[in-house]
Write a structure and sequence with these properties.
Strand order of the largest sheet: 1-2-3-5-4
Helix content: under 10%
Radius of gyration: 17 Å
Strand content: over 45%
Structural class: mainly beta
Number of strands: 16
Distance between the termini: 35 Å
Largest sheet: 5 strands, antiparallel
Length: 174
């Protein structure tokens, strides 16, 4: 049993499971056949039911151990952090910035809570700063803050088949 407060779960292309915790960084539950990939960069994993569990923190390049999310995208696993998007570099066992969108959006001032691709070059992001949440829309090469959320954070964003956007916030659905 993993005793952390788990916030998101995603499976990578090799079948390993990535977990984000509330305050303890990220965990990777690695299949035994892929353990050697991780052992090159990370030693002393925990073992659980034949799987290896690796823990990742600021020592591994994460900007913080709190507030990370894991999402699967067309370009692989992305980690949403206080400093925008990050990718895991398996060669050196570190997380690195991944500038998917304009750096002016992710200049360290926004926590990225949610990422949804709704079409070709169409993205919706749930962001937050110290005071409030925001919904950011990227449409091809243009981008805009679509919505300022007073006293809310966009914890989840979904698009239905008609193209309507739904925001899950602290106190319900918008």
């Amino acid at each position: 049993e993993i005793g952390d407060d788990i916030r998101s779960i995603q499976q990578d292309k090799k079948g390993n499971i990535w977990l984000s915790t509330f305050v303890n960084g990220l965990l990777a539950i690695v299949k035994p056949e892929h353990a050697d990939d991780f052992l090159k960069v990370k030693s002393q994993p925990e073992k659980y039911n034949g799987y290896f569990i690796y823990s990742f923190t600021t020592d591994d390049g994460l900007p913080a151990v709190k507030g990370n999310q894991v999402v699967q995208t067309d370009s692989g696993m992305l980690f949403l952090t206080f400093q925008g998007f990050m990718k895991f570099d398996g060669k050196n066992g570190r997380f690195r910035n991944f500038n998917m969108f304009s750096q002016k959006v992710f200049n360290g001032n926004y926590q990225v809570y949610e990422y949804v691709k709704t079409g070709e070059d169409q993205y919706w992001l749930g962001l937050a700063d110290q005071d409030r949440g925001y919904v950011f829309h990227i449409n091809g090469h243009s981008s805009e803050f679509f919505e300022r959320l007073k006293n809310y954070y966009a914890l989840d964003i979904r698009c239905d088949l008609r193209g309507y956007i739904y925001l899950a916030v602290d106190e319900g659905l918008l």
